[in-house]
Write a structure and sequence with these properties.
heterodimer; A: 312 residues; alpha+beta; B: 246 residues; Arc Repressor Mutant, subunit A; 12 helices; elongated
Chain lengths: 312, 246
């Protein structure tokens, strides 16, 4: 095989005139003695003649013009890519990259904010009582609105005024008097407010309906206790922490609504004051024991708004 | 590089320095010596090339000094040969024209850097072949598609001519081949069947008529490689032609 290839190369070199004198003599001897080699040489020669006889193609007549135009265009392109242009282009590219990066960062930040809004744990107490109450609300103590509808506005207002004077809370209350309504806004410590709430019972005979709205840490979300009674109100405010107050309010809300729909239990519940007192909220798992002294707890502020209106 | 066009021809100094005349005289002497060698009967291709190179060297030198006429002469001198070689390799007339144009644009751009280590002819062909081979690599499918299209042209007469030409009894007649358009078409088709390297070496040798040394210089390979590559290429071409006859 190797021999055949070598002979083939020699024959090619021979027909191309590329062999030295010694190799030429060798090929001539081979041709004289081996008819197969002579036949291969004829084939190669024919192949060569076949290719070399192909007509020569002429370049398009306008080739020179085309070359000149192309060279001119290339020159123009080169002049456009001068160092100044390149520098400007680099600065422009850099600015674009920076802008792109900044836009990317802003986009990521916005996306992160959106994701956080969706996935972030909701603040505030849950029924299970996880300790997620916001500090501001906890520090605020109690915030609520007591709406009283009365058949005798003057008498009810007089009883409240009397209680305010009795417990020296005049400095801690602001009010508004209208022909059809009175409003009292108390900003006092829970300790100072507690006796007043007890004395509100004196005004209750004139009250047609009472509802307490206790503010939770969730904006716009209040716990409403319908048909609230003075001792329930006092109990809610007396709870030592915010979570317990909310629990107590929810408890009374449920209890009062059951009393409303159940005439059998209504009398029993109203007769038995003890039933309306909720059990002390139990500490659930995960709660820290409240080590704060009771006096300090009493110092927590209570914001209570009493709205007294005439019942229709 | 600045391209000098006829409209904006750089003025050549009418009185070139004396060293220029000395250089021209030396070249004329060398040319004369080579011519004498030619007469004495050495390899004809080399002799012819050497003679061309003398002229080319002068034209190149003038081009390098900004003479656009000389540059034009070089282009006009080689445009047909380069176009023909490119066309035979890439098998597409339009692309061959584009590649020829690109070749000469590169020549114009780099003529200032040309140091004359090889002849202008070799240098220009190296650019052309490199561009064409790059083109063939990029458009590997194109020649084969066109080949298939051409291959489907069933011309019984051309086949008969080819069969007759390749038979042992006949004697090769180049004129007969050149006169038969169909036969030429079949050969061109057979060439496109070869791989790029084989097709190139056959075109440079059998169409352009370069010797092995020049081919080696253009392709930047050893002379021995040219010989073995050419041998394999011709063998393949023969096989392709015989396949076409079946």
């Amino acid at each position: 095989m190797k021999e055949t290839r070598k002979i083939e190369e020699l024959l090619n070199g021979f027909i191309d005139g590329e062999l030295g004198p010694r190799q030429t003599t060798e090929v001539q001897r081979l041709l004289a003695h081996d008819p197969d080699v002579a036949q291969r040489l004829r084939k190669l020669l024919k192949c060569k003649v076949l290719v070399s006889s192909m007509p020569v193609a002429q370049a398009p007549p306008d080739m020179l013009t085309r070359i000149k135009l192309a060279a001119q265009n290339r020159e123009t392109a080169d002049s456009l890519s001068s160092p100044e242009m390149k520098r400007t282009g680099t600065v422009y590219l850099l600015a674009r990259k920076l802008l792109t990066a900044a836009a990317g960062l802003v986009l990521v930040a916005v996306l992160a904010a959106v994701v956080y809004t969706i996935l972030a744990p909701q603040k505030g107490p849950t029924i299970a009582g996880t300790n997620t109450i916001g500090p501001a609300v906890t520090e605020a103590g109690f915030t609520g609105t007591l709406e009283l509808k009365t058949t005798d506005l003057t008498a009810a207002a007089a009883k409240i005024d009397e209680a305010v004077v009795k417990h020296s809370l005049a400095e801690h209350v602001t009010g508004d008097t209208q022909p059809e309504s009175r409003s009292y806004v108390f900003n006092a410590s829970r300790k100072a407010l507690a006796p007043l709430l007890g004395d509100l019972a004196a005004a209750w005979p004139a009250v047609a309906s009472a509802s307490l709205s206790v503010k939770t840490e969730q904006f716009g979300h209040n716990v409403v206790v319908n048909d609230v009674r003075p001792e329930q109100l006092a109990e809610i405010v007396a709870q030592n922490d915010f979570e317990r107050r909310i629990k107590a309010a929810k408890y009374f809300a449920v209890l009062n609504s059951i009393n409303d729909i159940s005439p059998v239990n209504q009398g029993y519940a109203s007769d038995s004051g003890n039933l309306s007192i909720p059990p002390k909220p139990e500490l659930t798992k995960g709660h820290k024991k409240d080590d704060k002294p009771a006096d300090k707890k009493q110092e927590q502020l209570a914001h209570l708004t009493i709205v007294l209106t005439t019942a229709e | 590089m600045r391209v000098i066009l006829p409209a904006a021809t750089k003025k050549i100094d009418p009185t070139p320095p004396i060293c220029h005349y000395i250089l021209l005289a030396c070249r004329a002497f060398i040319g004369r010596c080579l011519y004498c060698k030619l007469i004495s009967g050495e390899k004809p291709v080399q002799q012819q090339t050497a003679h061309i190179n003398i002229d080319d060297a002068v034209l190149v030198e003038r081009s390098q000094t900004g003479d656009s006429d000389s540059l034009e002469q070089l282009i006009l001198k080689y445009q047909n040969r380069i176009f023909n070689v490119i066309l035979k390799i890439c098998a597409n007339r339009h692309d061959a024209a584009e590649l020829t144009q690109d070749t000469f644009v590169k020549v114009i751009e780099n003529i200032g850097k040309f140091q004359g280590k090889s002849g202008f002819y070799t240098w220009a062909f190296r650019i052309a072949v490199n561009l064409t081979l790059n083109y063939c690599q990029r458009n590997a499918r194109v020649p084969f598609r066109s080949l298939d299209e051409q291959y489907n042209i069933d011309d019984g007469q051309a086949k008969a001519q080819l069969k007759d030409f390749l038979s042992d009894e006949s004697t090769p007649d180049p004129a007969a081949v050149a006169q038969s358009k169909e036969l030429c078409q079949m050969v061109a088709t057979a060439l496109t069947k070869l791989d790029d390297a084989h097709r190139t070496v056959i075109v440079l040798r059998d169409i352009e008529g370069m010797n092995y040394a020049h081919i080696a210089e253009v392709l930047q390979v050893q002379v021995g490689t040219v010989g073995s590559r050419l041998s394999r290429a011709r063998g393949s071409l023969r096989d392709v032609l015989e396949t076409m006859l079946q």
